[in-house]
Amino acid sequence: MINSEFRYAHHPKDVKNYTTEEMREHFLINDLFQNDEIKLVYSMYDRLIVGSVFPVSKALKLEPTDDLKAEYFLERRELGIINVGEKGKVIVDGTVFELGNKEALYVGKGNKEVIFEKDGTGQPYFYINSAPAHKTYPTKKVTKHEAEIVELGETKYSNKRIINKLIVNSVLETCQLQMGMTELQEGSVWNTMPAHTHERRMEAYFYFDLEKGQSISHFMGQPDETRHIFMKNREAVLSPEWSIHSGAGTSNYTFIWGMAGENLDYSDMDGIKTDELK
């Protein structure tokens, strides 16, 4: 079963007037990982698709939705997959890729069949991002050992974290999709702080590894007029190109960032001083 929805882009002046309910309706992506379901959210921010695949009692095949108007899902798209659960399998045009916890798979444009399965008795949680593609690049698995790893932050500022760049241009070639995973260390709760924006690409965050009963407050909006959305474990949020994207949890956690747009330079961003946020 595929559950899909479509979301428009928003002007920052309009967002300033949104209620809490409207902010959550337009930017929060919840109810991910429903039994034997593929959930897809097609966003008009760089046409990124954010979704989940949760095969519990049967294999699930990624099919095109009406929004794509395509013969098959990857006819004009590329796909990034990160497994945040136990060991699972992704079968791409007959080739089997085993994905363990926090391992990634890039699937290039033109592959006609993508199937998700359990591998044994464990339960995989497949988180996916997909963006339009103009060229076919090879399908490739990326483990944490193959990722580009950067350590940032300081304990005194509660933002000590490890950034795992998994599907990025310095690790493998893509058209525009970039994905990675940031792990907050124990005692640290702030991500992407100091904050920044990047006008040439949008971003989506997926939060997980959050203790039961805890919460994350995700901050977004223009730097001089921010808003926040309280989020639970295994929820995602869309971040427009004009918006900051930062968060603080009531405990440490991990999050996956996914980006699409015309720029593949990870360091291309406009920093904002923490004491200038409003």
Looking at the structure, what is the overall shape? globular
- The CATH topology is given as Jelly Rolls
Strand order of the largest sheet: 1-3-4-11-6-9-12
CATH superfamily heading? Jelly Rolls
What letter string, H or E per element, gives the SSE order?
EHHEEEEEEEEEEEEEEEEEEEEEEE
Major sheet: 7 strands, mixed
* Name of the CATH architecture: Sandwich
Average predicted local confidence, pLDDT: 96
Question: Helix content range of the residues, please?
Answer: under 10%
Low-confidence stretches: none
Count of spatially separate domains: 1
Alpha-carbon Rg, integer: 18 Å
Q: What's the total helix number?
A: 2
> What class do helices, strands and sheet pairing give?
mainly beta
* Count of individual beta strands: 24
β-strand percent reads over 45%
Distance between the termini: 43 Å
Describe the structure using short key phrases:
Jelly Rolls; mainly beta
Task: Describe the protein in words.
With 278 residues, the protein is mainly β. The chain has a single domain, classed as Jelly Rolls, CATH 2.60.120. 4% of the residues lie in helices and 45% in strands. The protein is built from two helices and 24 strands. The strands form five sheets. The chain has a seven-stranded mixed beta sheet with strand order 1-3-4-11-6-9-12, with no helix packed on it. A seven-stranded antiparallel beta sheet has the order 2-21-18-23-15-14-13. It starts with a strand and ends in a 7-residue tail after the last strand. The model has no long low-confidence stretch (mean pLDDT 96). It is an enzyme of class 5 (isomerase). Its cofactor is Zn(2+). This is 4-deoxy-L-threo-5-hexosulose-uronate ketol-isomerase. Keywords: Isomerase, Metal-binding, Zinc. It comes from Moheibacter sediminis.
